[in-house]
Amino acid sequence: MAELLVFPALIAYSEAAVAYAGELRGPGLAGRLGIWGARIGWLAQTALLVAQALSSDGFPWATWAGSLNLFVWLVVTGYLIWGCKPGYRLLGLVVMPFAAALLVLAWLGGGTGVRVADDAGALLAVHAGLMLAGLAGLTVAAGMAALYLWEERRLKRRDSGVLRLRLPPLAALERLEARVVAVSLAVVSCGIAVGLVGFETGDFDAAMAATLAILTFYGVSLVLRREGRLAGRRLAWVVLAGFALVGVVLPLTHFAS
Amino acid sequence: MKLALVGVSHHRAPIELREQVAVDAAGATRLAAEIAHGCEAVVLSTCNRMELYLASSADDESLEGRAVAALLELAGPGAEALDQVVYRLEDESAALHLFRVAAGLDSMVPGEGEILGQVKAAFEAGSTGPLLDRVFSMALHAGRRARIETSIGESPASIPAAGAALAHQVFDGLEGRTVLLVGAGRMSEATARNLRSRGARIVAVANRTEEHGESLASRFGAETVALDALGPALATTDVVVTSTSAPGFVLEGPAITAALRGRRGRPVLLVDLAVPRDVDPVLASIDGCFVYDIDDLEAVVTTSLAGRRAEAVRAERIVAAEAGRLREWQASLTVVPAIASLRARAEAIRSAELARAERRLDALSQGDRDVVETVTAQIVAKLLHLPTVRLKEAAVGAEGVLYADVVRHLFGLDEHEV
User: Fold this and answer.
1) Cα distance between residue B18 and residue B47, in whole Å
2) Left, alpha or beta for B183 (phi > 0: left; psi -120 to 50: alpha)?
3) Alpha-carbon distance B264 to A232, whole Å?
4) What is the pLDDT along chain A (257 residues), one digit of tens a residue?
5) Taking the CB of residue B199, how many other CB atoms lie within 10 A of it?
6) ipTM of predicted complex
7) Using the beta-carbon criterion (under 8 Å), do B303 and A230 form an inter-chain contact?
8) Tens digits of per-residue pLDDT, B145-163?
9) How far apart are the first and last CA of chain A?
């Protein structure tokens, strides 16, 4: 029965995605419906993850679909940290459709079922958990970068309604985006460090190389920002490019390995 | 209880009339004390209105007359003209008007921010009692709710405010942000003042007439810059406000473009208040460069005012709900004496019966006597709870007085028992 919890989560996330589109007309009921959809969906998915954890002997999200399920939860958790503030609600416009789509994929792949047989060790579980949390952080940062570009475009085009929407100031959005990337990199680094415990020289594969490349890419962009050589829309594009690497290259290399 | 409001406002009275009756904070306090003979009084004097609120616990029909007389006396020779535009409201409509005023719904610009503070100051300076305390407290609550639960006061309502709001949208807080003024026009000065009130620092002024430029720079504690040497200043400034009367663009050409490109995407807001324009619109294509001319700012203000008017509909609902709460409170006052009599009568019976049983209760321990005391008090309270609630409910409708009379009759409640 617990596996049915995926449906309220899915419905609530989808409702939030649609409601946030309504928020574009101006702050009001649609935004409140959106944030409540995200909250209710998150609660339902949390209950589902708890049920999965209780019914499993080891790490219940070891399959790709299971990992996707956990990843979606981490992304929505990251969003809710800021999304509850009215100024950051519209971040959900980017995050919630993405979360709903990935949850559908996880459900189709069987990642939302309970009683998943699993033999993964604790070390692997911690490694996977940290990596997924870091990647979820980078996803939220990409959402912020997309919101930055959208808001910047409206300001550039001198949209007369730009002040009617509740959007965070550009500088605040950029600052937060950089901080989220920095924290995510730290979490991914911890995940890599845990992974290295059981690492042997022959284990090095394309996925690991891609992860290190992504880590370097983001790290360099943060250093450039600190030196004042990367700011505003350029930084936003770099963060989005990094996310494209995370979303495309990482899965491809992972499955190829 | 009686509440009367007499006043003039921007709706009907031109500035020439309003300024005759306007008083400062000390004058408002003095006037409130003068007219509050045996009643309560608050004087609300702002740029847009002069209103006298009087309240009395008795049905005092002279309240309105006294308020009008005080207002006309203030007007002096202009009393006759003022009398034509004075509005008079009573009781519920007077309270509703005050609620709307506090919410900014009666202001020239819906939701303007200052009125709530002005109502609070007037209330604190007034000679108030139970009725005006209640009415003004609820009005302030309604005003706060309107601002918190709607976005009626969020968007800018003037061009200087729009410029400052855009700067805030780009830079987050303006604390420590630097501003360059190009031209010493009145509008640019107003915009600069608005930016400074939000924490920005006016660092430089560039003007064709050196004297005007220096005068403006000294007012802001800024330095002067030559108009043909703006490049270096642009490389470090966050906001540029231009308002020269130059026939062509002032900010244009390779030097300006190079200075802006040198910022490497660091944002800069160019607010162009001049007609003809001072800023070459091509500069908007540079990364991080936001250019707003006077038409853009006017469009922002128009949109935000339209938004405020839409939000005003929601704010009106809040005000109506708060006015409903005040009505309920006022109505409940009609049955309060009957409820107090009923409870006093019940308590008297309970005490008398306990006194009669004193001898028999003597045999009980102190603990048991306390239990008897508590149980009898609870029985009385529970018995009277529902009649009390029903009486208050009836008071909200038109049947409050009838119910109160019935209760008095059924329980034989006399006036001296209250």
Assistant:
1) 8
2) left
3) 9
4) 778 899 999 999 999 999 998 888 777 788 889 999 999 999 999 999 999 888 887 788 888 888 899 999 999 999 999 888 888 888 999 999 999 999 999 999 988 887 655 566 778 888 889 999 999 999 999 999 999 999 999 999 999 888 888 889 999 999 999 999 999 999 999 998 888 887 676 677 788 888 888 899 999 999 999 988 888 899 999 999 999 988 888 878 777 66
5) 12
6) 0.83
7) no
8) 998 888 887 778 788 888 8
9) 35
Residue B199 three-state SS? coil
Residues 6+ away with beta carbon under 8 Å from B366: none
What does the DSSP 8-state code read for residue A4?
G
CB contact under 8 A, A163 and B169: yes
B20 touches chain A (CB under 8 A): no
A62 in contact with B at a CB cutoff of 8 Å? no
Q: Which of B154, B122, B164 is nearest to B305 (CA)?
A: B154
User: Does B239 touch chain A if contact means CB atoms closer than 8 Å?
Assistant: no
Query: B292: nearest CA in chain A?
Result: A158
Chain A contact present for B161, CB below 8 A: no
Whether B287 has a pLDDT exceeding 80, the answer reads yes
Query: Given CB atoms, is B171 within the 8 Å cutoff of chain A?
Result: yes
C-beta atoms of A160 and B265 within 8 A: no
| The token pair that represents B275 in the structure block | 């007609």
Number of CB pairs, chain A paired with chain B, less than 8 A apart: 77
Catalytic residues of B, by residue number, are 47
Model-level pTM?
A: 0.72
Contact B299, B356 (CB under 8 A): no
Residue B286 DSSP SS3: coil
Rounded-to-integer distance, Cα A123 and Cα A135, Å: 18
CA-to-CA separations, B17 to B51, B69, B70, B78, in angstroms, rounded: 13, 16, 15, 7
Query: Could you say which residues from 172 to 231 on chain B have a Cβ atom under 8 Å away from some Cβ of chain A?
Result: 172
* Chain A residues touching B264 at Cβ < 8 A: 228-231, 234
Q: Do B267 and A158 touch (CB under 8 A)?
A: no
Query: What is the three-class DSSP state of A65?
Result: helix
B341 CB contacts (<8 Å, ≥6 apart)? B408, B411, B413, B414, B417, B418
Verify whether the Cβ–Cβ distance A160 to B299 is below 8 Å: yes
Nearest-CA distance A107 → chain B (Å): 39
Evaluate if residue B83 carries a pLDDT over 50: yes
Runs of H (alpha helix) within B23-129:
25-35, 63-75, 79-85, 91-102, 114-125
